[in-house]
Amino acid sequence: MPSVKVLSPQIAPERRGLLAKCLYADMKEFLKAPIIEVFYLTLDGVYANGEENTGSHAILEVEGPDIKKEFISRLSINLCKSFQNESGYPDCHVAVVYHVNDKDHVGSIDGLLSERSK
Questions:
Q1: Which residue has the higher pLDDT, 63 or 54?
Q2: Which helix (H) or strand (E) holds 16?
Q3: Which of 2, 3, 23, 63 fits 101 for a cystine, CB–CB 3.0-4.6 Å?
Q4: Dihedral sign, CA of 66, 70, 71, 74?
């Protein structure tokens, strides 16, 4: 199931629903899935080379099917814009990381999904 984990400064509760709808709409355009989940994880701080990095930073970790890099590029741009527009952090430095999520890349205590017996 496709998802996006939003690792960012605290997002006000009243903004989370609208942001989730925007991220869902962005992803739905490229990932034809009936359900797309949005997870919010709050960052305590960001450090670069051992020094506190000032300003706001966010990472959007997307998990979805294997798609063309052109689609990932456009999806990344859309997700970054949506985050900046709806999160309350318009000047935030946003990065998107896309992880392929399929039966050869997802596992559990039983191993990879592709290795499970039918």
A1: 63
A2: helix 13-30
A3: 63
A4: positive
